[in-house]
Structures are given as C-alpha cells and as structure tokens.
Amino acid sequence: MPQPIYAIGDIHGQAGELDRVLDLIETDGGPDADIVFLGDYTDRGPNSKAVIERLAKGKAEGRNWTFLMGNHDRMFSWFVEDFPRHDPLLLVELNWLNPRLGGDTTLASYGVPVTGRDRMSDIHAQARAAVPEAHVDFLQNLALSHETPDLFFAHAGIKPGVALKNQREDDLLWIRKEFHAATTPHPKLIVHGHTPVDSAMHYGNRVNLDTGAGYGKPLSAAVFEGAECWVLTQQGRNRLRP
C-alpha cells in the first residue's frame, strides 16, 4: 500500500483553520504525517503572522512537512527585500498592498497598518522592522513543486505539454486558463490550489484544494494513497472522485 501523503490548500492568514486541519491530519495519520502545503499562507485573512509562525516552527522542529511557494508568498517575500519588488504578472492598477490582494492585512498582522495615503517607502521600512528574520527566511526558501511517483504538487498548476522538470516558476505560481482547460492526462495527477472553488474538486487529471479560506470559507486538507484521494472531515475520510 502506498504511503499516505497529505495536502493542505491555500491558507491565506486563517490560523484557526490551519490548526483545525492539522488536527484532522494528525487524527488520520499521526504526528509524523507527510504533509505538503500548497502555498498562499498569507494575505486577505486576519493572521498571516500566526500562520507563518506555526509553519516555521514545524519546519524548525523537523516535521515531515513540505512548503510550496504561492504567488502571494512570493509577493510578500519580494516586498520585504532591501528594495521592494513588484510582481510583473499583476494588473497595472494593482500592487501587493491593495486590499484586493491582501498584503495590507498581512502587514496589519505584524502591527503595520496601511492606508492609501501612506508612502510605499515608509510602509516598506516599517515592514522590514516588523517582520522577523525567521519569517523572511521561511518565505525565501519555499519549494516550487513536489513530486511522488503518482503526484505532482504545485501552487497554481502546470503548463500543459511541458515536461514537469521544465515548468517555469511563473506558471507554477500563477497559471489558470490553459491548465484548467486541459482535459487530457498529465504525466502525473496534479495537486494544486490558487483558484478558489466551493469544495475540493477532482477533475481527472488534477485536484484543486483551494476552497476559499482567503474569503472566510473552510480550509481543505486531503490525503492521497498513490493517486487515490480522500478529503478529511471531522467524521473521517470522504472519497474524492473525478
């Protein structure tokens, strides 16, 4: 029987939901469960700081956890560099601090309030002082993907027709339309988040675990044995089929 591997969808600052699904995983797989976090730990939700603290603590403890980078995590990481970087894949009218993206709520969780009348240079300086170096280090050392013999984990998905080893960072973090439109099998079952859905969905060639925690909806966790998948609930496993 294949060793179970667990995955958690986009957390988006929902620390209470993270604790809830970690408890579900521990009940199902024990304290040493192999967990892949699909990225987007920050933004929109109220307590990104607590989420990063919890994940970084697990990493420091040597837990069997793999942390993937989401597009929101990259935006946060780039903002707290020596000179803040802007993600070129954003719309011209947006930046990370815009409430639509949620960087403002992330910095608020670190005690840095943001308004539209603030200068970016001032907010950047305050963020650099407020965000612990351990959190910056965590963000800067996230993986882009993770593989098992049957599964390929990435935050947003993959570009169809491109070998898994040749996937571009921007696609792994941002892709939607081409990936969602593809109905033929990929080299492996793709497990991803990035695009909110009402409930965890299995499309045959991919599984989407972003169930809208960034908008106040429940966070989702799933367990895979080979390519077979179940969603975890308070009542146990629910089989997720195409």
For this entry, give a set of tags.
single chain, 242 residues, alpha/beta, Purple Acid Phosphatase, chain A, domain 2, six-stranded mixed β-sheet, five-stranded mixed β-sheet, 31% helix, 16% strand
Description:
The protein contains eight helices and eleven strands. The chain has 242 residues and is α/β, with parallel strands linked by helices. It has a single domain (5-175, 184-239), classed as Metallo-dependent phosphatases (Purple Acid Phosphatase, chain A, domain 2, 4-Layer Sandwich). The chain is globular and about 55 Å long.
At a glance:
With 242 residues, the protein is α/β, with parallel strands linked by helices.
Q: Which regions have little confidence, pLDDT < 50, spanning 5+ residues?
A: none
| Global geometry | globular
Largest sheet: 6 strands, mixed
CATH topology: Purple Acid Phosphatase, chain A, domain 2
**Tally of individual helices:** 8
Mean pLDDT: 96
Structural class: alpha/beta
How many β-strand stretches? 11
Q: How much of the residues is beta strand, in percent?
A: 15-25%
Topology:
Blueprint: E1 5-8, H1 15-29, E2 35-37, H2 48-60, E3 65-67, H3 71-79, H4 103-109, H5 120-130, H6 133-140, E4 146-147, E5 151-153, H7 169-174, H8 177-181, E6 189-192, E7 201-202, E8 206-208, E9 221-225, E10 228-233, E11 236-239
Parallel strand pairs: 1-2, 2-3, 5-6, 6-8
Antiparallel strand pairs: 1-9, 4-5, 7-8, 9-10, 10-11
